[in-house]
Amino acid sequence: MHQLDAAREDLRRSEEDARNRDADAQNALAKQTDQVSRLRDSLTVSEDRVEEARQTADRYANELVRVQAEAKAFADQLDAARKQLDDAQAMAATEARDRDVWKGRCQDLREEVNELRARRRQSKILCF
In the 8-state DSSP scheme, what is residue 128? Predict the structure, then answer.
């Protein structure tokens, strides 16, 4: 009977060990299930952040293209303004030279007219 009691005691310990191992396995499974759930949540958050980063990168890329186009347009306007300024300076220089030439010619004509008047006066005086 002693063997029977010992066998029953071994069986009871084995069942208790099995229940403890089962409880430990259930606890481990629950912990791993929680960890998987947290990892899935973390993955979802990370995916959302990646999508937001992509959208931000797209917005920045579009903004960069727009700013580059504006910069090119401003550069073209600046080049056109510089050309207009160069043309205006060239025309002003030409007009200044022409004015100086005409001023000189006008002065020469005045001197000639004054000479002619002086000769006329002299010839009138000699005629009388």
Answer: -
